[in-house]
Amino acid sequence: MIALLLLLIPLATGLICFGLKQGNAAKHFSLLASVATLALALVAVYTPTAIGYDTAWLSDLGSRFTLKMDGMGKMLCLLTAVVYPLIFTAVYRNEYKNASAFFGLMLLTQAGLMGVFLATDALLFYFFWELALIPVYFLCSLWGGEKRIAVTFKFFIYTFIGSLLMLVGLLYMYFQTADHSFSINSLYAVKLDAAHQSLLFWLFFVAFAIKMPIFPFHTWQPDAYEQSPTATTMVMSGVMVKMGIFAVIRWLIPMFPLATVQFSNTVIILSVIGMVYASFIAIRQDDIKRLIAYSSIAHIGLMSAAIFTNNSSALNGVMIQMFNHGINVIGLWILADMIEQQLGTRKLSELGGLAQKAPAMAILLVVMALANIALPLTNAFVGEFLMFNGLFRYNIWIAAVAGISIILAAVYTLNMVQKIIYGNLSVKTENAIDLPLNIKFALVIIALLVIVFGVFPQPMIELTKDSVTALFVKK
Amino acid sequence: MSKIAFLVPLFPLLGFLVNGLGRKHLSKSAVGIIGSGMIFLSLLASSYLFGMVLFDSSPLAGGKSLESVVTLFNFIKTDAFTIPFEFQVDQLSILFLLIITGIGFLIHLYSTAYMKEEEPQHYARYFAYLNLFIFSMLLLVMGGNYIILFIGWEGVGLCSYLLIGYWFKNGDYNYAAKKAFIMNRIGDLGFLLAVFWILYRLGSVSYSEVFTHIHQLSAADITAITTLLFIGAMGKSAQIPLYTWLPDAMAGPTPVSALIHAATMVTAGIYMIARSNILYTMAPATQTLVAVVGLATAIFAATIALKQNDIKKVLAYSTVSQLGYMFLALGVGAYTGAVFHVMTHAFFKALLFLGAGSVIHAMHHEQDIRKMGNLKKYMPITHITFLLACFAIAGIPPFSGFFSKDEILVAAFAKNPLYYFIGVGGALMTAFYMFRLYTLTFLGNFRGSKEQEHHLHESPSAMTFPLIVLAILSVIGGFIGIPEVFAADKHWLEHFLSPIFAESAKLSEAHHLSHSQEYIMMGVVTALIVSVILFTVNHFKKFSATDSGEATGFGKILANKWYIDELYDKAIVNPLNAFAGLLKNVIEKTGIDGAVNGVGKLVAYGSRQLRLVQSGQVASYLLIMILAMVVFFIVWFNDITITKLVEKLF
Description:
The complex is a heterodimer.
Chain A (H helix, E strand, L loop, with lengths): L1 H18 L4 H23 L4 E6 L7 E6 L1 H20 L8 H20 L3 H22 L4 H29 L7 H6 L4 H18 L8 H8 L2 H26 L1 H27 L4 H20 L4 H32 L10 H4 L1 H14 L6 H16 L1 H26 L15 H19 L2 H6 L1 H10 L1
Chain B lengths: L6 H15 L6 H30 L11 E9 L4 E7 L2 H24 L5 H23 L3 H19 L6 H32 L4 H6 L6 H18 L8 H4 L5 H10 L4 H8 L1 H5 L2 H22 L5 H21 L3 H28 L17 H15 L5 H16 L1 H26 L7 H6 L5 H16 L15 H16 L7 H27 L12 H6 L4 H47 L7 H20 L2 H10 L1
Antiparallel strand pairs in B: 1-2
């Protein structure tokens, strides 16, 4: 029942939101709704047993409305539930034209995300996958920046091609099941030969790789992150990229174990190339948002590589990093958005000296930056440590090359910090003021999460342990 | 006994939190008391632990050894391995704890006066960073495994970043701070790879596990692990080729330099290798590498120091050089000697930096020694203590540096006489640049402006007290390690540390030079050093304001630090930047994104040609795709079930 409510609350409130009058009503309503969802998610996380829900749906097609919440599901639902109140708090002072539609679409996306992380019926999964994506197209194309139409188009084509490939693969798998069912267990039970597996592996993998994204399927992302309204960008980079990672773990690997073994090397090498490649590009970015986007690509690359190392500790690392990366990157987006809103620029070359004008902001930026470079005792360290450790066991040289990104992360992150808060004031930063209360609140929460999970990562590892074990048993 | 171990790092952490969070509300004196007081409490706790360890290793304990490792909680636990958050308090770590908290406390005390002109808020920020620095360093040496060590390891990197860039308005300082962090990160990658390697082979990173299961490692494993760890040490302890951050790190306030150079940070690499001594003893190839790199750094940095005119730069390069000697000691297996030199160096280098700070304070932020002179007249305490430190670092008996340096050089001789002779060459250069610095600063005529001269004054007692304490330590600190040649069995430090290095000692044959040989070596070296000092003092006493002091020829190369920074920029930084630009502007834009856009355009073009839809809107493409999908399906499956499916759907 909790699982169902996690879905229904955002869905229902999202729909109600459309009907609200313009002005602040939608803002307040959606904030309340997201807090309610968060409370529910916390209950779910603290429920020791697995949570599920099952009812008939399209029984003619062999599809049931089945939700199940294992450790990974709990954690990602928690992530989805945590980030929404943070985002709504952080953008509280932003004015949106047609606000009720904006917040309605945001909540619908949340419903879609919850569904993706909960569904154990492939058709249902696909349905939610699209439900999560479609509102984003509208959010980008209606509330985005100058180049929003072109960028949304690109984003749409990319993800839609991915979705279609996945649908084709899904339907094929459906016809292979013994009982013509979309249920996850029937799909897992399908035993294909290696040749078929490798074809299907790529149908699914490309869909998920686009979502993550993995090099070279990534070019939609910096553009989309740059042009979308920041609230949407936060959802995309904080949570939606995890859809791809999640789907690889939940669906791809258990369905195609032979192909996974066969293509591990390819995926890992692509991911590691992407890590180093994106890190290098991040060094040369002058635009804060694009810098964060490339930095995020580098971080996701590590997660993707770690999944395929066939190492359970690395998978533990992926699990906790999915959560931590989501939190941390949102912290960076909040800061980037605040700078842009207040100073009218995102260019590092036009900033400087903010430590004098906005000390609170400077401190929080430094905390987020440290998390971004995975300093020990920030939440990102443990995940990265476990993942690099897995990569090292897979191949020392690949780990060493991937390790370059550790150094480069320090280069671009500290460069960003330096150009924003240190040095002398610029024309644009002369009249800067410190963080407004709502943003400070959101960032302080994030900073606390960064440190608490940095010092005590174990609860998160315990939470997701069953999912790690399950994957290794299945294989 | 170790139950109270957690208090040692807890106090500085509290100080950091209180001063950091309360920086807008606390008065300066409150900040100073909290900042210094917390370190003092930490010093008390460390002293207590020291007493326990001392008792434990004495016969009084009756052979009942107490547990040295205390686990607080499990930091990371997976199915494959467990990394506890554990502290290890034994002879090695307690020694470092005393150095860190003792000298750290003196530096805090000194800072209360030195930083007085700062605004309250920044004053508090300064002390918060300083406390965090001590906290990180304490974690580093107290950690019972490589990961806790790494937490502190990265922590000191962060704190040095924050403190070097403390005056954040200055762009150069920020650049120096960033450089320090990034250079350290390069080393950190090596360190991390070593940790992965250990974890891979042994399934644990705890010292107690690793060092007892070392026989499970192959020789190749050990060589690889030790080399990678050494790369980490190169970054943290400023060895060739990762040393260039340290001289730039003097951009921070002078007490910070004292902290970085003496008590914390740079000694981390030495500590880590001394801690891993058994690994290094079993990897002779790496030992040679360590010795050679250490020796090369010792000489190389000394040559640069000969020609520097900034009082702090001379000291900075001397630190790099002295660290080189410590690595030489590690490389020849003289682990006690390395730790001994860490300790004596901590005394006299802290004293030198704090003395320099006192001078800079009096000179109103003038750091060029060519513009000083005759300061002994105005600053008697600073002068005397500085002179004593110079004797100590130059290695004049019986000052502390003599004993530790002698121990290293004797061990080096036993390993390879060539090490010894090069090492002595470095020692002579040390005597030269230190007494050049001393003479130009304190002797001769005052060469600054009239106004500066008018304001010259001795520093307040909060600053001179630490100088006096450190001077006493610099003078007598060497007596804890009296070599056998003077008195048999009087080397207290060696006895104290023997449990730590016991396994290594078993594996390495003891070299003993004959006493007469040792006396001759000692006598000759001392005579040479004394003559260099006399020559230097005499020579630079006559230095006048009209001497430009500009270096020419080879001296210019030295003055410009062998142009290493320029070389790194040209050979590494710029090409990498260009490569990044190539990826960003060419590969990403026209390559990958170009291809993607090309495909997109092709689709758009095709659809226009087909004139199925003319709007060019997203919706129409969607339609095309769905249609294409359906066609695709029918062609692919061509199965009765498809028809059934379609029937059901519509």
